[in-house]
Design brief:
about 170 residues; alpha+beta; 3 helices; 6 strands; binds flavin-adenine dinucleotide
Length: about 170
């Protein structure tokens, strides 16, 4: 056998191995895909228009401009008082838009400034309750300075924990 023939055999061997590897992978993925399809069919999941409609409603229904929310209830959630939940009711008493898991409110806070007057800061907090038309809930963790740092603690989370109580008014851009 010449060295050229030997090279051809080696190349053919490599090609065969690659083909086998790709076929096995394809087969595995195909089986996984079929299993998922069978499970969806068994559970009869509403994957189509209903789900798309819900997403569209929840993402397009936020208000324009601002809405004010009154804190109706504040609940400390843990023993070390590091997480508190705030139950918020819209001042205008109009029904609230629905939301999907992962959606959040953006708060525009006017905090006392170190220099003069107040300073505006913006922070986001996830909606932590099931959707309901008359109120939202957010749960906020107090943010401490990084270990060994003498930086100030988190501004917004400290403000919520230390200053925001029942009756406080919060401004929420849509
Ligand atoms: C979409 C979204 C959803 C979120 N949902 C939630 C939620 O549901 N609940 C929740 O608790 N949080 C949530 N967060 C996080 C939240 O928005 C804030 O980022 C968090 O509360 C910290 O903000 P703060 O103003 O308290 O801290 P900041 O004032 O922003 O400080 C952050 C950190 O930096 C340190 N720091 C400040 N100044 C210095 C400095 N000069 N040098 C070194 N370090 C410094 C502070 O000590 C603190 O540790 C969410 C964020 C996003 C984007």
């Amino acid at each position: 056998m010449t060295s050229f023939n030997l090279l051809l055999w080696i190349a053919a061997g490599c090609a065969l191995q690659l083909a086998i590897y790709l076929s096995i992978n394809f087969w595995r993925h195909w089986q996984g895909y079929q299993a998922l399809r069978d499970r969806d069919a068994e559970l009869n999941l509403p994957v189509t228009i209903d789900a798309a409609k819900k997403v569209a409603e929840a993402t397009s229904a936020a208000w324009s401009g601002y809405r004010n929310f009154r804190v109706a209830r504040k609940v400390v959630e843990d023993n070390v008082q590091s997480i508190s939940s705030y139950y918020l009711v819209p001042e205008d008493r109009q029904a609230l838009p629905p939301f999907l898991p992962g959606q959040y409110l953006t708060f525009q806070l006017a905090l006392p400034s170190a220099t003069v007057g107040t300073e505006e800061i913006i922070r986001c907090y996830s909606l932590s309750d099931a959707p309901r038309p008359d109120g939202y809930r957010v749960s906020i963790k107090r943010v401490l300075p990084p270990q060994g740092s003498n930086a100030a603690p988190g501004r917004s989370s400290s403000y919520f924990h230390d200053q925001v109580d029942v009756g406080a008014l919060l401004r929420v851009p849509g």
